[in-house]
Amino acid sequence: MLEGLNAAMDHVEQRLDRPIEAAELARIAMTSEYHFRRLFSALAGMPLSEYIRRRRLTVAGAEVLAGDRTLLEIAVRYGYTSGEAFARAFRALHGVGPGEARRSGAALRSQQRLSFRLTVEGNSSMRYRIVEKDEFRVVGRKARVPLVHEGMNPAIADFIRGIDRETLRRMESLADQEPQGILGVSDGLDPSRAEGTELDYWHGVVTGAPTPEDMDALTVPAGTWAVFENSGPFPQALQYLWRDVFTQWFPSNPYRSRPGPELLRTRLTPDAAQADAELWIPVERNPA
Residue 184 belongs to what H/E stretch? Predict the structure, then answer.
C-alpha cells in the first residue's frame, strides 16, 4: 500500500503542469478511487485536490520569482484560465500577489512534497468485527450540514437539539436490529472530504418497521461492514476513531472502503465528557 501511494505521489509531481486524474492515481496505488481519496485525506490531513493545488502554487511561486516566464504564461501552465484567477489563488496560499512577489522578492510559502513511510506504532489494538448485513433502512430526521473535522459540529448539534423528546422516544422504539439505538448517520459526503463541504446527516435508527409520516427513510443496500469500538473523551475520541481506522486499520488489513453511509452509535456519560462509540464503515475485500 505505501509503495503504491508513493508511486501515486511521483505521478502527481510529474504532472503538476498537466491534468491529474484521481482515478489514475488510484490505479497506480492499486485501489479504488473512493478509497484512495479517503485514505489520502486521512493520512495527509487535507483533501487530494487541496494538496495538488498547493503543490502547483508552490512550483508556480518558484517560477514567479525566477522571472523567466510572464505571469500569464505561468497561470496557464498551472491550469488557471486567467491571470486574475491565478492571482487570487496565489495570494490565498502565499499571502501576497504574484506581481508583488516578483517585484519585491517576497518570502513565499511552500507545500512540501508528500511521501509516506512506515512508522512502528501498533502498540494499541483496535476492537473490530466484520458484519455481513442485508439491505436495511435508516428511519429518522435528516439535515444537510457542513463537514467539520475537529471539535463539535455546531450544525449537527443545533439540528439534534431541535428534535423534541417525544419524537426521539418514538424514533428509538422503532429500532429492531443492529446497530441498536439512535444513530448518527453520515451520507452523501463530497469525494474530496474537504472541510466545509456538505453531507446528509441522519439522526435515526435501523429498522424494518414502516416509516412514520413525519420522518424520512434511507435505504441502504446489502453489503459488508467493519464495526469498530472505542471509549474516550467526547467528541475527540470519536474523531480520532475515524482517523485511526483509515491511517492504521485499512493499511494493515485486506479491506478497502466502499461507497455508503457511515453509522455511529454513541453513548455519553451523564456529564457528556466521555463516550462509548461503535462505528460502522462500509467495506469490501481488496482484490487479490
Answer: strand 183-187
Q: Is the peptide bond before 179 cis (omega within 30 degrees of 0)?
A: yes
Q: What are the backbone angles phi and psi of residue 112, rounded to the nearest 5°?
A: -65, 150
Residue 252: what pLDDT?
72
pTM for this model (two decimals): 0.72
Pairing outcome for strands 198-207 and 183-187: antiparallel
Q: Is 6 exposed, middle or buried (0-12, 13-18, 19+ CB in 10 A)?
A: middle
Residue-wise burial string across 65-87, b where 16 or more C-beta atoms lie within 10 A, e elsewhere: eeeeeebeebbbbbbbeebeebb
User: Would you list the DSSP string of 163-175?
Assistant: S-HHHHHHHHHH-
CA dist 230 and 243 (Å) reads: 12
Residue pLDDT, tens place only, 162-212: 999 999 999 999 999 999 999 999 998 877 777 778 999 999 999 999 999
Q: What are the C-alpha distances in Å from 76 to residues 3, 66, 72, 82?
A: 32, 17, 6, 7
